[in-house]
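Worked example

This section walks through a single chain of length 589. The input is the sequence exactly as stored; nothing has been trimmed or padded.
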Amino acid sequence: MDTHTNSSSATTPTMLTGSEIIWATLVGEGVVEVFGYPGGAILPAYDALRKFPIRHILVRHEQGAAHMADGYARASGKVGVAIATSGPGATNLVTGIATAMLDSIPMVCITGNVSSKVLGTDAFQEVDITGVTLPITKHSFLVTRPEEIAPALRHAFQIAQSGRPGPVLVDITKDAQQATALFDFEAAKPKPYRPHPMLKVETNELAKAAELIRNAKKPVILAGHGIQQSGAMEQVRALSERAQIPVAMTLLGIGGFPASHPLNMGMMGMHGESWVNDAIQNADLLIACGMRFDDRVIGTPGTYAVKAKKIHIDIDPAEINKNIKVDIALLGDLKDVLEQLLPRISSGKAGQHNGSSWIKAIEASKGAVSVRDIKNIPDSGHLYAAHVMHDLWRMTGGNAIVATDVGQHQMWEAQYFHHEHPRSLVTSGGLGTMGFALPAAIGAKVACPDKEVWVIAGDGGFQMTAAELATIKQENLKINIAIINNGYLGMVRQWQEFFYDRNYESTPLVSPDFVKLADAHGIAGLAVTTRGEVEAAVNQARKHDGPFLLNFFVEQEDSVYPMIPAGKALHEMIRRPGHNPLVETPEDL
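Given that input, the structure is written out below as tokens.
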């Protein structure tokens, strides 16, 4: 059976077991790494794995497998693959599948199930995983015969990558893995992908959009995750520069437009920059590029950018007018749509915004000294999370992949670590999954072994998937870990401070000694308590030949500013105490 490992295995029809067909199909799809955990119902597939040139990363929990496949996909743009057995193995994937679904990440999850003869009998470790995951997958397959395996898997890869990407589940019964069938990779090829019939940009709509852009006096581009998914970085930059339109970033859009670009205003939304939110509220035109007007971005729909005309470019028709009514919808792949739109934005007309009062007003609204200037963060012996983020950015030159967990540290990273490159921020946006960072970083490092990878996690979220330290050690992955340790479930504590009279119920957090925990896994580490120690510690971690953990003990009751309270408008922000920007009211814009 050694012939299965050569390049002809995907083109030469051969009699194989269902288990062998699984791996042969993955090889044909270009898969070289998978993340998984064996068990009874998937054991035939694991038995066949040794015959194929695929690296299997053994996780410590199936949730970790899903997050690793997710991080792999985010960092590389390829489809991530996770493997699990039936019952609890399959259900442990659910949080990771939902995380990928909410953020449109291409992923294929393969699960084993009990023999088809006992399906529906509540057999040992049987669960209807296709039913469980129905709302959180683009599609799912239940495969009960070996000849169905290759077509299902090939179709799954097509679905995961086409249109708006997302996760697909393929559940394969044990007897289908054990039986034999003719494997013909080419014959299993799915029918060509047919885009949604609505995905056709009308010429008159392009003309209307171009006219709105030419006539706008206060335009803003809203840069979403779709920019990176579409590979439309150059097209968005061309639009911004040609028409001199400032750009506001969503959390998942970060990296799609260089942070150092003078037209990049920064992040919008609940914890976005005040000047960005004010600019959006006072814009006369919003150009939404591959973003879905999430509630954390818009505040309350009835008060969102009421002065602005709105152009929405998106590949998913379901997102149009779902949260915000728009004036012009340009349906299709963002890169394709912008390539049709850009020739209509003539450079002769485009200079109208250059040096305009609009851009000057936005600059002025940052205040005499920008609140994001690290010099404005106290350095009185206390260590603030902003110090850590800024120094990590400065010392890496921003040339690292950063995987964050969810919470305060995630927002501080978005504010103080300036991303120049696409796919350099790996973070859970839509679902907000604690425990995401560590396994996602493993996936990112496997996908991009030559890139510097950092985990930035809170002390709460880190403990949820800390078992994956063993995976890092077993795979000998050079991953650096920064724990922002404030002794609380930080973001929940912040809400308790602002809205629940400082009733810190169930948020103070007792944690293990993370440095000793790392040492128990054979991983080096250091504790850091002052700003003066940060640079040497980060240098030591970066130079160390192997994974390294830094436990940063930061100010406990620091909060993320600004913050838009739930149910408030985008401009109704809670500002950092004592911060008095030069421009106080949005009307001044």
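What to look for: The chain has three domains: 2-183, 203-365, 374-553.
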